[in-house]
Fold:
Amino acid sequence: MRMIDILERKRDGAELTRDEIDWVIEGYTKGTLPDYQMSALLMAILLRGMTRAEISQLTQAMVRSGRELRLRDMLGSYAVDKHSSGGVGDKTSLVVLPMVAACGVPVAKMSGRALGYTGGTLDKLESIAGFNVTLATEQFARQAREVGLVIAGQSEELAPADGLIYALRDVTATVPSIPLIASSIMSKKIAAGADGTVLDVKVGEGAFMTEADQGRELAQQMVRIGEDAGRDVTAVISNMNQPLGGAVGNAIEVREALDTLRGGGPEDLREHCLIIAGHMLGLAGQGERWHDPGEAREALAESLGSGAALRRFRDMVIAQDGDVRMVDEPERLPTARLVETLTAPRPGVVKVVPARGVIHAAFALGIGRESKVDELDHATGLWVHVKVGQRVAAGDPLVTIHANSEESLMRCREELDGLLPLSREDVAPLPLVLDEIHGRRQRRGPRSS
Ligand code: URA
Structure:
């Protein structure tokens, strides 16, 4: 096979064969295919698109480039996972996974670190002193069986071709291609081995996808990849035009997640978690225990009210060497030196809480990283007290800044200046969920536990 022929075919809009796709992915992973040719192919894909068959074959080729976990064998039961495409203040995993585990469905999840806008569950968990996210596969499996909940760093052995290709896409302006994004995300999900996955596809100014139609298209393609690979997939397309919950940072997001696990927390976060966790139970118990969404919701709400979900989170922290006193007394979590609250200058209704502006302001405090090697500050962040459509009186808190230096506090204040305008008229609150897409269910044997 010759790469020049493959490039010509894709350039002219032809459908690549499975053998051609396998040959390209194998060659690029082994280093026999040079970056310049792979870059040309990625650009041709971005411009020409891919058929459903090509997208599935590309995904499978990336899965085969590394190791594939068999979570069902590890857990001895149906394995369910979730993935968020990344949003501002998105601490959903910290709440949802213990809720699902508390309902008797074990969860073994591999997560990522923060990069750019995408929040990193691992960084948030590392706000808890000692919390270990680097687990050997054996330990990961044992904890999933014994505790019912484990969250660890993604193994580099999963879909290594995706890591190499993503790095190249990043420097060749080929990231924003829906087939490439869909296959990249799903190759890691399939290699991570869950039978069923709930995808939380964020749409809006604080998300990777800014338009609802793009989000729907991405969700549809990922659901189809799941179907072709014999996995159950449900996609929830959710609104990311304002932060989810109030906290944006690391330790302060853990604090908000703990409030929610204690049965409190902001209404939008609690509701979003009930929706995502409900779909996870729906996949795990399809046709059996959790077939009735109302019943699943009741059980999940009970897991928050009874403290069962919090106990699972606590057990996970102990098993992964974290300082559990920080869970029991969240005021022990890292705190910033300087705290300042900005208030409403006059009465009015909150017009927008621009997610992108909020994350820029929070970045000024050091909550994230621009590149993989940057250090982040676990203690800093923002607490946004208002939602779009909320009525406020003069002097009501709008946002609290948690900073560790005068300079970053000043920069953050500048970023926030004029960011939360007030209207004299009523403003409609934003919907939480825009759409849902359900994949065709795969038939498997009975779900044991
Ligand atoms: N996240 C991924 O894992 N891959 C992409 O291509 C984009 C976002």
Remarks:
- Residues 166, 180-181, 184-185 surround uracil (CB under 6 Å).
